[in-house]
Amino acid sequence: MHHSRVLLGALTGLALYLRAHSIGADPRVVFDEVHLGNLANNYMASQFHLNPHPPLGKLLITLLFRAFGYTGGSSFDSGEPHPDFVPYVQMRRVQAVLGTLLVPVVFAACRALRLPEMA
């Protein structure tokens, strides 16, 4: 059991480091920000948009973006710099933390399925 906790801690720490290291180094709009940013704009403006995926995750992300002061209005054009009013570093941190939290969730699922630790 102790070995499992050490492994989980190491994997989670590595996941956080890989996601958060230099997270604000590039001020340009990157891949997922185009999609998520424009969806957040639509939700904040109460505009209809066609999206084949369930909305809960995107609504929660929109709520977190609003909590950091983003009120919509950025075009989120790929490769373009973020305007000054877009708290992109905080927005990226949200994604990094959520992605990091997947590590212990998947680890627990694997344990519940009784998969070997090195699977």
Strand content: under 5%
> Oligomerization state of this entry?
single chain
What is the H-and-E element order? HHHH
Q: Which structural class do the helices and strands define?
A: mainly alpha
Average pLDDT figure? 91
Please explain how this structure is put together.
This protein is elongated. The protein is built from four helices and no strands. It is 59% helix and 0% strand. The chain has 119 residues and is mostly helical.
List keywords for this structure.
0% strand, elongated, mainly alpha, 119 residues
Brief overview, please?
It is built from 4 helices and no strands.
Lay out the secondary structure.
Blueprint: H1 2-20, H2 31-44, H3 56-67, H4 88-112
Helix pairs in contact: 1-4, 2-3
